[in-house]
Design brief:
Largest sheet: 10 strands, mixed
Strand order of the largest sheet: 1-9-10-8-2-7-3-4-5-6
Number of helices: 6
Radius of gyration: 17 Å
Number of strands: 10
Strand content: 25-35%
Bound molecules: NADP nicotinamide-adenine-dinucleotide phosphate
Shape: globular
Order of helices and strands: EHEHEHEEHEHEHEEE
Helix content: 10-25%
Length: 219
């Protein structure tokens, strides 16, 4: 474990992913545990220090894995990295419908109501059917690694993080705590049925009162 105070020059080294298939999840919350702010998204609780790590983790990933709910609510734009949308419905989020072939993949199930539509929009080869009623997230990871995406970054949301932990697929959680308290009714960084996952603190960085923690999932 390392605790640093000060500038962020060492961040790339501190956040380097191991040379093996690796899936990490990056989330942000306030001191009182809110994963969203007044606009109903995480954008209204971000800080500059969090954005630095957010960008670094994106830059060093091979692909992003994001729950369809977060893609819809946060209006994800088409980005430089391939985006894997996890969805039980296979409904392609509006902002991703005109992305070039191969920029968006859909991880879904055979009973998804919009499966055929997703195949038409994204291309058959970009729709991963990973179960009948539940997306098998371990299979998803294996399939993505086979396609060359060894370092995967998930940006949530809370339901997907909970399921990645439950299915033993998340290797690392990068959890930022921003120096604010917001009260009110907000999601936490996980949502869904209870679970109990032990973590080990790998790195803790403080920058401008933001705490940036790198936790490894132990199992
Ligand atoms: N603080 C943070 O770091 C952070 C990060 C991300 C998001 N957020 C916030 O969290 C809120 C959204 O929360 P959320 O929990 O609804 O997000 P989410 O997990 O991204 O969205 C839930 C939806 O994603 C799909 N999904 C998630 N897990 C799945 C699984 N295991 N298998 C199949 N589909 C799965 C389903 O989509 P279908 O309905 O299409 O089946 C589900 O309805 C937003 O307000 C967002 O701004 C905060």
């Amino acid at each position: 474990m390392r605790v640093l105070l000060g500038d962020g020059d060492e961040l790339p080294e501190l956040y380097a992913a191991p040379d093996q298939p690796w899936l990490r999840v990056n989330m942000v919350a306030t001191v009182d545990g809110a994963a969203t702010g007044e606009d109903g998204t995480s954008r209204s609780i971000n800080t500059g220090a969090d954005k630095v790590v957010f960008d670094l983790l994106r830059d060093t990933s091979d692909a992003l894995v994001v729950g369809a709910g977060t893609v819809r609510i946060e209006g994800y734009a088409v980005g430089r990295k391939p985006l894997v949308v996890v969805s039980r419905t296979a409904s392609v989020p509006p902002t991703q419908r005109k992305a070039g072939r191969g920029k968006v993949l859909m991880a879904t199930v055979s009973t998804a109501p919009y499966l055929e539509e997703a195949r038409q929009i994204l291309g058959n080869e970009n729709v991963l059917v990973l179960g009948s009623h539940r997306v098998d997230l371990a299979r998803m990871k294996d399939e993505l690694v086979l396609r060359g995406f060894r370092h995967l970054l998930s940006e949530g949301g809370p339901h997907l993080l909970r399921d990645l932990l439950d299915q033993g697929v998340a290797d690392e959680l990068d959890a930022t705590v921003v120096p604010r308290i917001v009260a009110g009714g907000h999601l936490r960084i996980t949502d869904g049925p209870p679970l109990d996952v032990p973590l080990q603190l790998h790195t803790l960085v403080e920058q401008d009162h933001t705490l940036l923690a790198r936790w490894f999932v132990t199992r």
